[in-house]
Amino acid sequence: MRYLETTNLDDKPDAVPTHQQEKERAEKIGQLSNLIRDPTKVVFLLIFMNGCTPCDLTKPEWKKITTHQPDVLKKNDDIVVASIEQSLLKQLPSSIPEPSGFPTILCIRDGGKTITNYEKDRTVKAFVKWIQSNIRSSASSSSHASSKFNKIGGKRQTHQRRQTHRRRPRKQSRRRIVLSRKRL
């Protein structure tokens, strides 16, 4: 597993970038773009915004993935865990959708053709469990068409129709109707 962090000048929005910082940032964005386009890689991407409190709470948990990873993830070079600041997102491939909220966590596979959104707990344990489930599902599904996930939707497709349990109004008894008419 590889960890790649791409931020906008170390979380300092007013800082003037040095030539070296610009060069390093461009190099990291280039690496991340290449990894996203590679159909053999599965990229788990955290998109955050500076100054966003939920993002500030999620980033440390996301970084802990590198230390709390099981052996299955450590040995797999096809797994990439990355984070990027939202202002740098437009420099990545156009297949990545513009997030509707922050932080946004995506699983990108098949060279950017399949994107799954994460919408569960923001803990290391939950992140690792989600990564493992996505690795298993990508290994078990041999083609893009047989994937269990919607593109961008993030929720598993269910072929069963959800039943809505509506409570039918109770029928009023004749006696109640007669009593209500007398009161009028």
What topology does this entry show?
Layout: E1 2-6, H1 19-37, E2 42-48, H2 53-63, H3 71-74, E3 79-85, E4 104-109, E5 114-117, H4 124-140, H5 174-183
Parallel strand pairs: 1-3, 2-3
Antiparallel strand pairs: 2-4, 4-5
The whole-number mean of residue pLDDT values reads 75
Radius of gyration: 24 Å
Enter the CATH topology name: Glutaredoxin
CATH class: Alpha Beta
The SSE order reads: EHEHHEEEHH
User: Low-confidence stretches at least 5 residues in length (pLDDT < 50)?
Assistant: 142-164
Protein architecture, described:
By secondary structure, the chain is α/β, with parallel strands linked by helices. 33% of the residues lie in helices and 16% in strands. It is built from five helices and five strands; from the N terminus they run βαβααβββαα. The protein has a five-stranded mixed beta sheet, with helices on both faces. A hairpin with a 4-residue loop joins strand 4 and strand 5 (114-117). The longest helix has 19 residues, at 19-37.
Provide the descriptors you would attach to this structure in a database record:
5 strands, single chain, Glutaredoxin, five-stranded mixed sheet, alpha/beta, 184 residues, 5 helices, globular, 16% strand
